[in-house]
Write a structure and sequence with these properties.
The chain is α+β, with helices and mostly antiparallel strands and 177 residues long. It has one domain. Helix content is 52%, strand content 14%. A hairpin with a 6-residue loop joins strand 3 and strand 4. Helix 1 runs parallel beside helix 3.
Length: 177
């Protein structure tokens, strides 16, 4: 049942499905990235979650309960539009020479979360690399191997963080030219 107090997150998730149907996964990806960036610009510089050795991780899954409730409305299966969008982003990441600039995507809302977090880090003078994520639906793990390599870390190190979190980022304060 959709109650008024939780209609907005479900409407947004339904909007993602509608965007994929109408405009395709690429435009939907760009739309979610733009929303994340605009929200980050409003919020300003900073980082969410815990930090350790320039690794930022979130013990609680952003938007996780909203996504789980929404998927339950669809009989426990992610809508095909979500899967299409996730697959599209994974393919873009793998095909791109700068694949470290994409999220380690375990759910469709990871696009929004990563663009928001990445922009806030940028405003704080850092680069943020999305190393790994855990699905709130299945606990399956996803990695961005290009980002892990760029961060100078190993998959096993990322796994150690994913045991206590839902997403792992590397903060790089390097001087940009």
């Amino acid at each position: 049942m959709i109650r008024l107090e939780n209609m907005l997150p479900k409407a947004f998730l339904m909007g993602i499905m509608e965007m994929v149907d109408r405009f395709g996964p690429e435009e939907t990806f760009n739309w979610l990235v733009d929303i994340g960036i605009k929200l980050a610009e409003i919020e300003g510089p900073g980082f969410e979650g815990a930090r350790e050795n320039n690794v930022n991780y979130l013990p609680v899954c952003p938007f996780g309960s909203d996504l789980v409730e929404f998927v339950e409305m669809y009989g426990g299966e992610q809508p095909s539009q979500f899967l299409e969008l996730i697959e599209h982003v994974k393919n873009k990441k793998e095909a791109s020479e700068d694949g470290w600039n994409y999220p380690a995507l375990s759910g469709v809302l990871g696009i929004l979360h990563y663009s928001y977090s990445k922009k806030r880090a940028e405003l704080a003078g850092a680069e943020l690399l999305s190393l790994g994520a855990k699905s709130p639906l299945t606990n399956d793990l996803e990695y961005n191997y290009k980002a892990i390599e760029r961060a100078g870390m190993t998959k096993e190190e990322v796994d150690d963080y994913l045991k206590k979190s839902y997403c792992v980022f590397k903060i790089d304060y390097h001087d940009k030219e």
